[in-house]
Design a protein that fits this description.
Pfam family, one: Gpi1
Keywords: Membrane, Transmembrane, Transmembrane helix
Distance between the termini: 72 Å
Structural class: alpha/beta
InterPro entries: PigQ/GPI1
Number of helices: 24
Largest sheet: 10 strands, mixed
Helix content: 55-70%
Oligomer: single chain
Radius of gyration: 38 Å
Shape: elongated
Number of strands: 12
Number of domains: 2
C-alpha cells in the first residue's frame, strides 16, 4: 500500500538556511495506516536543548502538552518529531556512492534518529529532513520511521503556513455563516449519487487546531526549558510600562462600573421600601419595556469586568479560541459604548431643543385627536365611502367612541405640563443609561398616551369577534353541522324546527349589522396598528443596537485576517520523481513513483455581511410565514 505524508512547515523554517543539526517539535496526526500528517510547530538547535539545565526533555514535553487544549491532547500529543540536517553523510564510514537508504542505515545513530538525550520513551514515528538547494523551498524529506519501518518511498505534500498569531491571523475550517442551500431538484443527476458514494476527505480539524496552537506551544516549551527569554521580557522597561498601563486602565474601568452599578442598586433598594412599593409596582406594569432594557444595561455593567478576565487556559493556548474569547469580551463594552454615545447625542439634542420638541408633540397630539380620531368617528356615523350603515348602531358606537376620546383628551389637558418634563427625562435617561433605555421609555410613554385607542380597539374587537362567532355557529345550524371541540372537527347534528326558527331570527339582524361593526372594527384596527407599528419600529431600532457586533465590525475594518472561513492550497511545485537513488528509480514503475507537492496554506475571509447576518438572523428567528399567517387570520376573525 502506497503511503502518503503531509508535512506542515512554518514559513520561517523554509526561509532560513542555517538550521543544521536541529530538532523538530510538533504533532503526529495519524489518520490511517497509510496516511500521516506531520505538523511542525517550531525548530530548535541541539545546543539550546543541551543548555536545558538538567531537566528531562520528556518532562518538558509532558508539561507543554498539558497546556494544550483538551481536544488536541486526545487526538495528538506534542512531541519531538525528528531532526533536520544540512547534509546526508553524517557518518564518515559511509560509502562514497551510497544511496539515500544506505546513508540512513550507516548514519541512523549519528544523525539522531530515535536517540535524543533526555527523552525517555520515543514515539513510533520519526521524520528526518535535510537541506537540499535543488528542491523547492530548499527542504527535502530524507526518510520517515513509520511504526518501526524506514520509509523512503511515499507521496509527500509539503504545506507551508504562516504561524498564527493572536491579533494578526489564524486558520479555521468552520464557515461561521454558510449560505443557505438551494432547493434540490426532485430527480438528482447520476453524478451526484456517485459523488455521495465516494469516501469523505481526511478530517483536518486536528491539523488546523495544532497549527493554531503552534505559537503557544513554542512559548510554553521555551519557558519551561529555559528562563532566559522570560527574564529578559519580564524586566524590560517597555513591558513593565505597558503592563502597568493596562492594569491601571482595567482597575479604573472596573471601579467606575462598580460605582455605577452600586448607585443603580441603591435606588432600586430605596424604591422597594413599603412607602415606595406602589411606585415600583406601577412602574413595572406601565414601564415594562424600560425595565427590560434597564435590566440588560445593569447586567452588562455588572458582568463585563468579569468577561475581561483571561482565566481560561484553552483560549490562551489556541489562537482561534483566544480570538473568539476576545470578541466575546469586546462585544459587551463596545455595545455599551455605542449605546451611550448614541444616547448622549440624542439626549443633548433633546436638552438643547426641548421647547421645539414640546411644541411639536402638542401639535401632533392635537392633530391626531381632532383630525384622525374625532373626524373619523363622525365620518363613520354618516355614510362612509358611500356605504349605507345602520344609523342607530353607528350612532351608538360613534357616541361611545367620542365620549372616550373626549374624557382622555380632558385628562391629557391637565397632564400637558408634564410633557416638558418627560422630554427632559428621556434626555437624561439617554445620557445616563444609553439610547436603548430612553427609546424603551418612549415606547412606554406612547403606549400609555394611546391607551384610549387600545381600549376602543379592544371593545370593538370584542363585539366584532362575538358577532363573527355567532354567525359562524348559525351558519353551521342551517347546514346541519356542529363543532366538536374535543376532536376539533365538524359532526352532523339534527336540529329541531324551533332551533331553526330562532336561528333564522338571530342570523338576519346579525348579518345586516355586520357591515356597521366591521367598519368601526377596521377603523380602530388601522389606528391601533399604526400606533403599534411606530412602537415596533422603535423596538426594532433597539434590537438592532443590541444585536450589532460593533467590535467585530471595527476589527474587520482594520484586519480581515482575524475572520477566516475555510482554507485552500496555493500549489507552488509538483514533481513525480523525487528519488535521488538510481536503483530506486529502476525498481519502480512510472505509476508508483513518489509524488512531491509543495503548496502554501491560504485562508478565506468573511465579508461584512457574513459577520452581521448570524446576529440579525437570531434577532428575527421568531418571525416566520406561519406566524404572519396566524396574525392575519386573527385580524380577520377579530382575535387580538
Amino acid at each position: 500500500m502506497k503511503r502518503q505524508c503531509r508535512i506542515w512547515l512554518p514559513k520561517l523554517l523554509t526561509s532560513t538556511d542555517d538550521l543544521s543539526h536541529s530538532l523538530l517539535f510538533g504533532w503526529f496526526v495519524l489518520h490511517s495506516s497509510s496516511c500521516l500528517d506531520v505538523v511542525v510547530a517550531f525548530i530548535t538547535d541541539e545546543s539550546f536543548l543541551s543548555s536545558n539545565g538538567g531537566s528531562s526533555l520528556q518532562d518538558v514535553l509532558h508539561e507543554t502538552n498539558e497546556k494544550m487544549p483538551l481536544t488536541l491532547r486526545y487526538k495528538a500529543a506534542f512531541t519531538l518529531l525528528g531532526c533536520y540536517d544540512s547534509c546526508l553523510s553524517a557518518n564518515g564510514n559511509a560509502p562514497k556512492n551510497a544511496t539515500d537508504e544506505d546513508l540512513c542505515r550507516y548514519s541512523s545513530l549519528s544523525c539522531g534518529c530515535h536517540k535524543v538525550d533526555g527523552l525517555g520513551s520515543v514515539s513510533s514515528h520519526w521524520i528526518h529532513m535535510v537541506h537540499d538547494s535543488s528542491s523547492e523551498r530548499g527542504i527535502r524529506m530524507h526518510h520517515i520511521h513509520w511504526n518501526g519501518d524506514i520509509v523512503f518511498q511515499c507521496d509527500v505534500h509539503v504545506i507551508v503556513y504562516d504561524p498564527p498569531v493572536f491579533g494578526s491571523h489564524h486558520f479555521s475550517l468552520s464557515f461561521w455563516n454558510a449560505s443557505p442551500q438551494t432547493k434540490a431538484p426532485l430527480k438528482k443527476p447520476s453524478w451526484v449519487n456517485d459523488l455521495h458514494k465516494r469516501q469523505p476527505l481526511t478530517e483536518m480539524e486536528t491539523v488546523i487546531l495544532s497549527i493554531n496552537c503552534a505559537a503557544s506551544a513554542e512559548i510554553a516549551y521555551r519557558k519551561l526549558s529555559t528562563q532566559l527569554e522570560t527574564s529578559s521580557r519580564k524586566f524590560s522597561l517597555s513591558y513593565l510600562i505597558s503592563t502597568l498601563a493596562w492594569w491601571l486602565l482595567a482597575t479604573l474601568l472596573s471601579s467606575l462600573s462598580s460605582l455605577y452599578y452600586s448607585l443603580i442598586h441603591f435606588f432600586y433598594q430605596l424604591s422597594s421600601f413599603p412607602i415606595f412599593s406602589w411606585v415600583l409596582i406601577a412602574s413595572r406594569r406601565v414601564l415594562k419595556n424600560t425595565w427590560i432594557n434597564f435590566r440588560i444595561r445593569s447586567c452588562q455593567i455588572l458582568y463585563w469586568p468579569i468577561f475581561l478576565q483571561e482565566n481560561n487556559m484553552t483560549s490562551i493556548s489556541c489562537v482561534e479560541d483566544a480570538e473568539k474569547a476576545a470578541l466575546q469580551r469586546h462585544s459587551t463594552w463596545s455595545a455599551m459604548a455605542v449605546d451611550l454615545v448614541l444616547g448622549n447625542l440624542i439626549g443633548l439634542s433633546l436638552l438643547f431643543n426641548t421647547g421645539d420638541v414640546y411644541s411639536w408633540v402638542l401639535h401632533f397630539a392635537k392633530e391626531f385627536t381632532n383630525d384622525i380620531l374625532r373626524s373619523g368617528c363622525v365620518w363613520l356615523m354618516g355614510v362612509p365611502a358611500g356605504f349605507k350603515l345602520n344609523t342607530e348602531l353607528a350612532g351608538v358606537l360613534g357616541m361611545v367612541s367620542l365620549n372616550v376620546i373626549q374624557i382622555w383628551s380632558t385628562l391629557w389637558i391637565f397632564m400637558a405640563s408634564f410633557i416638558f418634563y418627560l422630554i427632559r427625562a428621556v434626555a437624561v435617561m439617554g445620557i445616563t443609561f444609553g439610547a436603548t433605555v430612553s427609546a424603551s421609555f418612549v415606547i412606554d410613554v406612547i403606549t400609555f398616551a394611546t391607551l384610549h385607542v387600545t381600549a376602543l380597539h379592544w371593545a370593538i374587537t370584542l363585539v366584532y369577534s362575538h358577532q363573527i362567532q355567532a354567525l359562524a355557529a348559525l351558519w353551521r345550524l342551517f347546514r346541519g353541522r356542529k363543532m366538536n371541540p374535543l376532536r376539533q372537527r365538524m359532526d352532523s347534528y339534527g336540529y329541531t324546527v324551533k332551533q331553526h326558527v330562532v336561528g333564522s331570527l338571530l342570523f338576519t339582524p346579525l348579518l345586516l349589522l355586520l357591515p356597521t361593526t366591521s367598519v368601526f372594527f377596521i377603523f380602530f384596527t388601522i389606528t391601533s396598528t399604526s400606533v403599534n407599528s411606530i412602537c415596533m419600529l422603535i423596538e426594532f431600532a433597539v434590537s438592532i443596537i443590541h444585536a450589532t457586533p460593533y467590535a467585530e465590525i471595527m476589527i474587520w475594518l482594520v484586519r480581515r485576517q482575524r475572520f477566516p472561513c475555510g482554507v485552500w492550497f496555493e500549489i507552488e511545485h509538483y514533481k513525480k520523481n523525487i528519488l535521488n537513488s538510481s536503483s530506486d528509480r529502476s525498481n519502480n514503475s512510472p505509476e508508483k513513483k513518489p509524488v512531491l507537492m509543495v503548496s502554501n496554506l491560504r485562508s478565506n475571509f468573511l465579508s461584512i455581511g457574513q459577520i452581521l447576518l448570524p446576529h440579525y438572523t437570531t434577532m428575527f428567528s421568531g418571525i416566520s410565514a406561519s406566524s404572519l399567517t396566524t396574525s392575519a387570520r386573527g385580524v380577520l376573525s377579530g382575535k387580538r
